[in-house]
Amino acid sequence: MKAAVLSTPAPISSSPLEIEDVPTPEPKPGHVLVRVRACGVCRTDLHIVEGELPPRHPRIIPGHQIVGEVIGGELGMQNSTATELRVGSRVGVTWIGGTDGTCTYCRRNMENLCDSPTFTGYSVDGGYAEYALARADFCFPIPPQLDDLHAAPLLCAGIIGFRALRVSGVEKGERVGLFGFGASAHLAIHALQAWNCAVYVSTRGESHRKLAESLGATWVGGETDKPPVPLDRAVTFAPSGDVVLAALSSLRKGGVVAINAIHLDRMPEFDYDRLLWGERQLRSVANMTRADARDFLELATAIKLNPKVTKFPLEKANEALRDLKNDAIDGAAVLIP
Ligand SMILES: [Zn+2]
Ligand SMILES: [Zn+2]
């Protein structure tokens, strides 16, 4: 099969992904083999390809927003989804490729924090390829209303953005700030609107600001601009500590900032008395649970969420990541093998 393979992490400007012919994965117990129909491109892929996340294997196929068609493997009743996977079923595969099910976190319904997780496209091969192997109990049925191309970005950008809203504790009708307006935020705004929240967007990039305006943001400003009113919640998407501080300084007392980033450039020193005192909270958002995935896909279907998508052929995986890094993609990038 054709795949985009990473051997040596390097700046994306040097095109570290190589398009190669590699063996199609062999089915193994508890797994299904899927034919990849679309795979979303995520900022985490960029962190893997550029080496900000240390390599786990000498060679890896990235990609963890896979919409695939089951073509073989172990089928049957799936753990807690009560959904039967059949040959021909369309499923989504996410960043959480598996958990041990036995650690303290898994036993407390916090499987996103599992001590021995499997990460798709990082600890096992992912979806920048024609075929991928996935644990059957971590595959999610894709509702027929969602087509391949538009379902793909929901699987990480969408689900993790949704989890970030949950972690921030957002309630109906609140004022919520989104700091950074890429693939994840442009989906989160739809969920917030469904909950009658007023959305304040601070982001770099004129086209991202235009997109936020066109999607009905109450207020739109620059990357570290402060919204005109105190916010109840804020979610930061940019991998920048300065942006986290801008979000923190925008909060009312008791407000929460959820940091939706697997990697930050650094965390600057800040004034506790002025910025955190008053029971303000700073929280990180790590991975997702299967419940987040199911709940978000249900919400996305109910509100007819329609992501803005830019298509790339698999051969252009490096270009897609480069455009993502340069903020040159409005909405989400999706690879088609
Ligand atoms: Zn991701
Ligand atoms: Zn666990």
Q: Can you describe what's shown?
A:
The chain contains 10 helices and 19 strands. It is of the alpha/beta class. It is globular, with a radius of gyration of 19 Å. Bound molecules: zinc ion (2 copies). The site of one zinc ion (ZN) has 5 residues, from loops.
Summarize the structure.
With 337 residues, the chain is α/β, with parallel strands linked by helices.
Helix-strand pattern = EEEHEEEEEHEEEHHEHEHEEHEHEHEHE
Distance between the termini: 10 Å
Regions with little confidence, pLDDT below 50 for 5+ residues? none
Decide which structural class fits the backbone: alpha/beta
The count of DSSP E runs of length 2 or more, i.e. the number of strands, is 19
Strand count, sense and barrel status of the largest sheet are: 7 strands, mixed
Computed over alpha carbons, the radius of gyration is: 19 Å
Please tally the helical runs, counting DSSP H or I stretches of 4 or more residues.
Answer: 10
Bound molecules: zinc ion
Global morphology: globular
How much beta, percentage-wise? 25-35%
Mean pLDDT: 94
The amount of helix comes to 10-25%
Protein topology:
Layout lengths: L1 E5 L10 E5 L9 E11 L1 H8 L15 E8 L2 E2 L6 E2 L4 E4 L2 E3 L5 H4 L10 E2 L11 E5 L3 E3 L6 H4 L5 H12 L6 E5 L5 H10 L3 E5 L3 H9 L4 E3 L9 E6 L4 H8 L2 E9 L12 H4 L5 E4 L5 H13 L6 E5 L3 H9 L6 E5 L1
Parallel strand pairs: 12-13, 12-15, 13-14, 15-16, 16-17, 18-19
Antiparallel strand pairs: 1-2, 3-4, 3-10, 3-19, 4-7, 5-6, 7-11, 8-9
Helix pairs in contact: 4-5, 4-9
Bound molecules: zinc ion (2 copies).
